[in-house]
Design brief:
By secondary structure, the protein is an alpha+beta fold. The chain has 3 domains: 248 residues, no CATH class; 254 residues, no CATH class; 142 residues, Thrombin, subunit H. 46% of the residues lie in helices and 15% in strands. The protein is built from 25 helices and 22 strands. Strands 1, 2, 3, 4, 5, 6, 7, 8, 9, 10 and 11 form an 11-stranded antiparallel sheet that branches. Strands 14-13-19-20-21-18-17 form a 7-stranded antiparallel sheet. It is globular, with a radius of gyration of 26 Å. Bound molecules: arginine and glutamic acid (GLU).
Length: 695
């Protein structure tokens, strides 16, 4: 009997240990530490996060606010994904110096290229500030009153935060606003490009393979952090020197095998794991299909033009990737939600919640939450869709309309007076300049013709012949002069005349109405989260991703996407060659790489069977923003670089199913092989600390 109990305990424990979750690094002691150990980790909570001693967290940087990166040498060498550094790589590329196509490798510090605006931020310490932030906030307050009390608390608290002059801070809500944490940060602003493989390696497989396993992409690029003479954050200066980090990750040459522990440390962006079933239905049945359709319409034009014209290929490389990425993700998300039966599972869960309320005599207190959420979600549906279609057309896909949005905001600012206008004008000029750096009227007009009919019946492509804003100099001429004059000129521009009513409708009607309802929904979600944790305390609750530092852990593991099919967790260079299509824009393979394959010239980077590993899968619960995150082995060494999830599991932002949700990592041995054998940049390898933990 005891034996059976033990087995049950172990089975349940093992399953539980793979249920996903993105955890707060300062709170790993206890449950997480135990789970990680049961998965094979030899790390203690304080190896991962420590305030007084250097720890793993000191090597993890938030890359430009969107991706993750990690320090891998004592000279501030920084590793992230190719797709995270893509817009920097693109910005230094031209037809003559095509770093996208050919790759880039700095041979010395002097050749490393500065990147205006790019920054990397580290976390110095994390503190629970729930008590101060929620002081005098009570349940009988309206959402508005609550928010205003929280704002008051925040303002008072911010003045008392202890930190050094060069440090910054951030306060973020967790568990839907039931907890608050303070992050003391250090932001480095002199970040230089060190190396990038050609796109045929860094983005091998492109859109066809994106979000898909089996995968063979060397999705990495290298940067370096520069600091001032005191090793502190500083703006770009020739006098800056390579940053000496508090910690950098050693790299394991022994790699991974199926079943090995891995942990992913990074800055996941946004998840929504505690939505009611109605919300999931709205996302998958209404919002995703709409957004997919609009992006698909834009991609048709962009893709065709990129294939036809080399200049357009460079200009639109980064934009196209951004549009295509979510487009494909949403398709996978819908399939996964459908296949996993997430809506039914949520509904059952909600029934259980109601039962628990009843059993604990809390129906009066919390019984209204779900019915109210249901009402609100049906109320918000129309406006939510309008808001989405505006945003996909006017902010994401069509560039002329994006300029019109800013210009309308500028005119709105002019009503507040000169100062507001000047500020808005500066911002507008910056935006228009940055759009025109990589702009093709032909492409944009094509996009307009394809996407605008999905937003309105009022179509007039002739605005492209007559507006000033398809040309940078003419745009700047309209914006030149004193306020009234500029506003008058603007209101004579055909594109502006066309777009302004749409933009005004959005800012005056659609957006405020959406926000009103959304505030109510958020307030209920806060209560729902609180109620769940109170009446069903034995579930695993991890806070939704919110662009703060998190730890997720699991194992190297394959999966079964459908009946009779099992995907192994590791791919090899042999698979790159299998996929090779000469001259293809997605599956071409550089000659040098084919030669290295022919000669099996793998150096120290092959596995014990003499094969060169490319990518591997794990059960780590990741999301957008985890791109570039290190996959760390049981002893704290770098073994992989996270860059994607599998198609069947992209719904993990809403519903994590341990059976099929997998993250995809590049094997660090492939990264080293490319740097060393392919690019001949062995001076970079010498900077790193290579280890053999398994020997
Ligand atoms: N899907 C990955 C992510 O969400 C990789 C995107 C870059 N790759 C690409 N082929 N667009 O960001
Ligand atoms: N590629 C994603 C990113 O840019 C990470 C993959 C994911 O969403 O899991 O952050």
């Amino acid at each position: 009997m005891r034996f059976i109990k033990l087995i049950i305990f172990l089975v349940v424990f093992q399953l539980n240990a793979q249920q996903g979750g993105m955890w707060i690094p300062s709170l790993l002691e206890g449950m997480n530490e135990t789970e990680m150990r049961s998965l094979g980790s030899k790390l203690s909570a304080s190896d991962i996060y420590d305030v007084n001693n250097s720890s793993l967290k000191d090597a993890i940087g938030h890359f430009n606010g969107g991706c993750t990166s990690e320090v891998i040498s004592e000279k501030g060498l920084l590793l992230t994904n190719h797709h995270c550094g893509y817009s920097q790589i693109q910005s230094h590329s031209s037809l003559e110096k095509d770093y996208i196509k050919n790759g880039f490798w700095a041979k010395s510090f002097e050749e490393e290229i500065p990147n205006e605006g790019l920054f990397v931020e580290f976390i110095v310490r994390i503190e629970d500030v729930t008590e101060v932030m929620l002081k005098r906030v009570t349940d009988d307050m309206s959402p508005r009153e609550k928010q205003s009390q929280i704002d008051k608390n925040r303002n008072a608290f911010e003045k008392t935060i202890e930190k050094e002059d060069w440090q910054g801070f951030k306060i973020s809500p967790f568990y839907k606003g039931n907890q608050y944490f303070l992050f003391i940060t250090e932001r480095f602003e002199d970040i230089r490009l060190v190396g990038a493989p050609p796109v045929s390696i860094g983005k091998f497989g492109s859109d066809t393979d994106n979000w898909v396993w089996p995968r063979h992409t060397g999705d990495f690029s290298l940067f370096r952090i520069y600091a001032d003479k005191n090793n502190r954050p500083a703006k770009y200066s020739e006098d800056n020197r390579p940053y000496t980090p508090k910690h950098y990750l050693p790299i394991s040459l022994d790699g991974i095998e199926e079943g090995d522990f891995t942990m992913v440390f990074g800055f996941p962006g946004r998840t929504n794991e505690y939505l009611p079933a109605v919300a999931i239905e709205q996302i998958t049945q209404k919002v995703n299909p709409l957004n997919i359709t609009i992006r698909e319409a834009a991609l048709k034009v962009i893709d065709a033009n990129m294939k036809e014209d080399d200049l357009v290929r460079i200009q639109y490389a980064s934009k196209q990737a951004r549009i295509a990425n979510s487009w494909k993700k949403w398709i996978g998300e819908n399939l996964g939600i459908e296949k996993s039966g997430a809506v039914t599972i949520k509904k059952d869960f909600e029934a259980e919640f109601l039962k628990a309320l009843h059993n604990q005599g809390k129906t009066a207190e919390y019984g209204n939450i779900l019915p109210q959420l249901e009402n609100l979600y049906s109320e918000i549906e129309d406006i939510n869709l309008k808001r989405n279609s505006f945003s996909q057309v006017f902010l994401v896909t069509n560039e002329l309309m994006r300029m019109m949005v800013r210009l309308t905001q500028m005119e709105m600012a002019s009503e507040k007076g000169e100062t507001a206008f000047e500020k808005a004008r500066d911002r507008t000029i910056n935006q228009i300049r940055s759009i025109h750096k990589n702009y093709s009227v032909k492409v944009d007009k094509g996009v307009y013709k394809n996407v605008m009919p999905l937003f309105t019946d009022n179509i007039d492509a002739s605005i492209y012949e007559t507006t000033a804003f398809v040309d940078l100099e003419r745009s700047l001429a309209v914006l030149n002069g004193e306020m009234r004059e500029v506003v008058t000129k603007l209101n004579n521009d055909p594109a502006y005349i066309y777009a302004k009513p749409f933009v005004l409708d959005f800012y005056q009607n659609v957006d405020p109405e959406f926000k009103r309802l959304n505030t109510e929904i958020n307030a209920l979600q806060t209560q729902y989260m609180k109620a769940l944790m109170e009446v069903m305390p034995n579930q695993r609750y991890f806070p939704d991703a919110n662009r703060t530092l998190r730890v997720t852990y699991g194992k190297v593991n394959g999966y079964s996407p459908r009946d009779a099919v099992y995907y192994k967790p590791v791919t090899y260079l042999d698979g790159v060659i299998e996929k090779y299509v000469p001259g293809d824009y997605e599956f071409d393979v550089p000659e040098k790489l084919r030669q290295l394959y022919e000669n099996k010239d793998y150096g120290d980077y092959a596995d014990k069977n003499g094969k060169l590993p490319i990518c591997f899968l794990g059960t780590n619960h990741t999301t957008g923003g985890n791109s570039g995150s290190p996959a760390i082995d049981a002893e704290g060494n770098l073994v992989g670089l996270n860059f994607d999830r599998v198609w069947e599991g992209t719904m993990s932002d809403i519903y994590y199913d341990p059976e099929i949700c997998r993250n995809i990592m590049v094997d660090l041995r492939y990264v080293l092989f490319i740097i060393d054998k392919y690019a001949g940049a062995d001076h970079l390898i010498k900077e790193m600390k290579l280890v053999h933990p398994k020997k």
